[in-house]
């Protein structure tokens, strides 16, 4: 049986280990959502990951949900990301870019007054958004018309083209955590009254599948991953049958030559519970990545018994740029500082020490 430290094939790409860096929004982009040298340094420090999955990155202008998150829709952003891919490749790493549309999680104060869009006119209610004027309540989004959705798909495709130009090794389609594609997937946020994107799981998944198809036209086989979170209630999300949704997706995504399926296995607020990993493992035939709350020991056991093929670590990688080396020798881990998760500058970003410190 494979171990945490054995290689893993993703299409034509070979990962040296199965310890992946999960996408982590850190709000360190420069003006106009351009990634700069600080972001390049951050990711290069973590290049010993089997694969880095870079943070949620805007595919279209005017849909910011985090104020200082990076984009991939302008030439300046492409040039900025080239610093990161070059820095990671120079030290032997591999990096995918997560393609993302915030949907109803965006806010007018972050987007020149523009009202956010979503699957239905239902606002996020269990949190507030950081804006230049402090934390604010989310607003009711405008429901996208069916006729507008091809433009969304085209936005993802152009972002995929730009990610290829920027030198990434692949891309991950973000269909998790209550952002636009997830808003269409789950029936708690998709209450469209009519049309081909409402009702059945197949209809609610239509936009995601169209995005996967368009992005795969750019990248080809084995270089497109997908992230889902059927249980996670973050951003006021829920579904009436999350295990059924997860099972349907696991079956349907076999029709695409994906690099992997990346699954957030839990609800961070514990409002929804259930085992989604077992039915996904049963039905999905490709590379399966588990995420959320794994220790090194649990990840090792899960991989050894075939429950997953790799594990993506978030906060542990945030605070431990040399995480694989620490896991290998059983070294203690740095503790992350939540106060710096969404701040600016190098503190809590590029200043975590490597072992032995």
SSE topology sketch:
Layout: E1 8-10, E2 13-15, E3 19-21, H1 37-45, E4 52-58, H2 75-90, E5 95-100, E6 117-118, E7 128-131, E8 134-137, E9 142-143, H3 149-165, E10 170-175, H4 180-185, H5 201-204, H6 206-219, E11 224-228, H7 242-252, E12 260-264, H8 277-283, E13 288-291, H9 296-304, E14 310-313, H10 315-319, H11 323-329
Parallel strand pairs: 3-14, 4-5, 5-10, 6-9, 10-11, 11-12, 12-13, 13-14
Antiparallel strand pairs: 1-2, 7-8
Describe this structure in words.
With 357 residues, the protein is of the alpha/beta class. The chain has one domain (8-340): TIM Barrel (Alpha-Beta Barrel), CATH 3.20.20.70. It is 29% helix and 16% strand. The protein has helices at 37-45, 75-90, 149-165, 180-185, 201-204, 206-219, 242-252, 277-283, 296-304, 315-319, 323-329; strands at residues 8-10, 13-15, 19-21, 52-58, 95-100, 117-118, 128-131, 134-137, 142-143, 170-175, 224-228, 260-264, 288-291, 310-313. The strands form four sheets. It has an eight-stranded parallel β-sheet. Strands 1-2 form a two-stranded antiparallel sheet.
Amount of helix: 25-40%
CATH fold name, please?
TIM Barrel
CATH class: Alpha Beta
Low-confidence stretches: none
Strand residue percentage: 15-25%
Average pLDDT over all residues: 97
What gap, in angstroms, lies between the N and C termini?
33 Å
Number of domains: 1
Tell me the total number of β-strands. 14
Provide a count of the helices. 11
* Major β-sheet strand ordering: 3-14-13-12-11-10-5-4
The CATH superfamily title: Aldolase class I
Structural class estimated from helices and strands: alpha/beta
Q: Supply the CATH architecture.
A: Alpha-Beta Barrel
The rough form would be described as globular
Largest sheet: 8 strands, parallel
Order of helices and strands: EEEHEHEEEEEHEHHHEHEHEHEHH
**Rg of Cα set:** 19 Å
């Amino acid at each position: 049986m494979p171990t945490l430290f054995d290689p893993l094939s993703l299409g034509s790409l070979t990962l040296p280990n199965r310890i992946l860096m999960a996408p982590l929004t850190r709000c360190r982009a420069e003006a106009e959502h351009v990634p700069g040298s600080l972001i390049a340094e951050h990711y290069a420090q973590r290049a010993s990951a089997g694969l880095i999955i870079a943070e949620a990155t805007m595919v279209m202008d005017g849909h910011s949900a985090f104020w200082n998150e990076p984009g991939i829709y302008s030439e300046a952003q492409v040039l900025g990301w080239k610093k990161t891919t070059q820095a990671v490749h120079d030290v032997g790493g591999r990096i995918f870019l997560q393609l993302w549309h915030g949907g109803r999680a965006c806010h007018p104060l972050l987007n020149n007054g523009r009202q956010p869009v979503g699957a239905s006119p239902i606002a996020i209610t269990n949190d507030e958004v950081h804006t230049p004027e402090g934390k604010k309540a989310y607003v009711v989004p405008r429901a996208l018309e069916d006729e507008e959705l091809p433009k969304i798909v085209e936005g993802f495709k152009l972002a995929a083209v730009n990610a290829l130009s920027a030198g990434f090794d692949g891309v991950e389609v973000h269909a998790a955590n209550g952002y636009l594609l997830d808003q269409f997937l789950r029936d708690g946020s998709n209450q469209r009254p009519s049309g081909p994107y409402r009702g059945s799981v197949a209809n609610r998944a239509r936009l995601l599948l169209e995005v996967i198809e368009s992005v795969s036209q750019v990248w080809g086989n084995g270089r497109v991953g997908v992230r889902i979170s059927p249980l996670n209630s973050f951003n006021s999300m829920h579904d009436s049958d999350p295990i059924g949704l997860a099972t349907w997706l696991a079956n349907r995504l076999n029709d695409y030559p994906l690099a992997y399926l990346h699954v957030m296995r839990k609800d961070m607020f514990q409002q929804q519970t259930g085992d989604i990993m077992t039915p996904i493992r049963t039905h999905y035939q490709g590379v399966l990545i588990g995420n959320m709350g794994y220790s090194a020991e649990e990840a090792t056991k899960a991989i050894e018994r075939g429950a997953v093929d790799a594990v993506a670590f978030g906060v542990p990688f945030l605070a431990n740029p040399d995480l694989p080396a620490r896991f290998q020798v059983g070294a203690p881990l740095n503790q992350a500082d939540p106060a710096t998760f969404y701040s600016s500058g190098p503190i809590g970003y590029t200043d975590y020490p490597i072992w032995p410190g």
